[in-house]
Amino acid sequence: MKTLNAGVPATAGSTGPNGVERTDRTDRIVGLVQRQGALAVLVTVTLVALAVFPDFRSLDNAGTILVAAAPPMLIALGMTFVILTGGIDLSVGSLYVLGGVLAAWASQYGFVYALLVPLAVCGGIGLFNGLLIAYTRMAPFIVTLAALLGARGVMRAISDEGSTTYVVESDAFGTLGTGSLLGIGNQVWLAALLVLIGMVVLARTGFGQSVFALGGSEDAAGLMGVAVRRTKIGVYVLSGLLAGLAGAVNAAKLGSGVTVLGAGMELDAIAAVVIGGTLLTGGAGSIGGTVAGVLLLGVIQNMINQVGDLNSNWQQVISGTFLAVVVVAQTVLNRLRRVH
Length: 340
What we know:
Shape: globular
Distance between the termini: 36 Å
Order of helices and strands: HHHHHHEEHHHHHHH
Mean pLDDT: 82
Radius of gyration: 23 Å
Low-confidence stretches: 1-15
Strand order of the largest sheet: 1-2
Structural class: mainly alpha
Number of domains: 1
């Protein structure tokens, strides 16, 4: 008995072994680039800096980079959870400066109040954002933009239009920003601990899986039984808490609640998250990539400082360029995945 299809060649839509193998290989390569691209660039830029700038090689300089990256790392950590759901939080810059002012003001009552007050207020604003976004289905951009303006207004009211600067009065709280352990700043240890916790939450808990599902497709997530509203509220509360904590840590480092900080912090956080490989549309990304993104921006800023005659604003130019390149690359990689 003859087999009719024995000599028929595979068509373009064939799912034979070779076609499946090529598709799997393409998916693996695309996934690897998306996950580890920022780390590869970070290593490359760091090696260039080590070769070109002698002062970059010192341990003191490495410590400076890590300490400077700690507050942005906390903000970007919260932003990662938000963007993974397909949302955005523009209020974190204002919450950062508000948290610093509140921490410095509350430090007169001791260490505990210096931490709890900014966390309670900034977490409350994050809760407000989450409730509005979850229950009214308003665009996160609009809701968090309103919160940005509101938080900035609260900060100015507390500080008498910025004319009053509160000084940190608790030595124990000041140690959080100026102390060190094993030669590494306390705020670096704190950021590292929270990053590790964030990785575990995202990869090993139901909440983390809900975050990814919500970013992939909100409708599908709802059909699968994901608590969509609760997850949305949770990520915005987390973002608010981490932004307030970052501000408190910065106030402890500076010794006062500086009112002129925070402008553009939300954009830096978004840039670090996206450069780290998290899709702006949500559903794919990692905290490890965000860490690489934050450190990459920190290394670039340090290199600009090493040059000496370059304005620090060039860091924003470079960050914007990186962001544009990464977004284009993500679009191309996603199209390659769909084609294969």
